[in-house]
Amino acid sequence: PVLRLLEAQLQDQRREHEEEMEALKNQVDLMQEELEKQRQAFLQTLQLSPEVQVEFGLQQEITRLTNENLDLKELLEKLEKNEKKLKKQLKIYMKKVQDFEASQTMVPVERRPHERNMQVAVQRKEKDFQGMLEYYKEDEPLLIRNLIT
C-alpha cells in the first residue's frame, strides 16, 4: 500500500513536471517568434533613411509611453477607490466613537469608578498574558477609538 501510494505520488509529480515543461516550451516558442518579429522589424528599420528611422523610433517611444501612462492611470484609479473605501470606514468609526462618547455622558456616576478599576486590572493582565484583553461589550467603541488614536 505504501509503495503504491509513493508510485502514485511520483506519477503525479512526473505528470505535473511534464505539464510545466510543455508550458515553458510553449512560452519559449512564443518568445522566439516575438524575437524574430522584432529582429525583422529592426532589419527593415536599418534599411530606412535616417529621418525615417528617427520618426519610427519616436513612434515606438510614444507607444511605450502611452502604454505606461495607461498602466499608471489604472493604478491611480485603484488607489483612489481604496482611499474612498478607507475614508468611508473612518467616517463609520468616528460616528461610533461619537455615539459612544455621547452614551458615556449618560452613564450613571456609580459605574464609572468600576470602569477605572477594570482598566487597572486590564493593564495588569496585559503584562501577564500579552495580547489578552478583558472588557465590557459597551466599552468596545472606546477601545477602538484608543487603538486608532
Give me a quick take on this structure:
The protein has four helices and no strands. The chain has 149 residues and is an all-alpha fold.
Write the layout of secondary structure elements.
Layout: H1 2-47, H2 50-105, H3 112-129, H4 140-148
Helix pairs in contact: 2-4
Coiled coil: 3-103
Organism: Calcarius ornatus (Chestnut-collared longspur)
Protein name: MYO5B protein
Instruction: Output the helix-strand order.
Output: HHHH
**Counted beta strands:** 0
Shape: flat
Overall mean pLDDT: 83
So what's the oligomer here?
single chain
Discrete helix count: 4
Q: Percent of residues in helical segments?
A: over 70%
Low-confidence stretches: 120-128
Protein name: MYO5B protein
Keywords: Coiled coil
What would you say this structure looks like, in words?
Keywords: Coiled coil. This is MYO5B protein. Residues 3-103 form a coiled coil. The structure is a single chain. By secondary structure, this protein is an all-alpha fold. It is 87% helix and 0% strand. It is built from 4 helices and no strands. It has helices at 2-47, 50-105, 112-129, 140-148. It is flat, with a radius of gyration of 33 Å.
Give the tags.
single chain; 149 residues; mainly alpha; flat
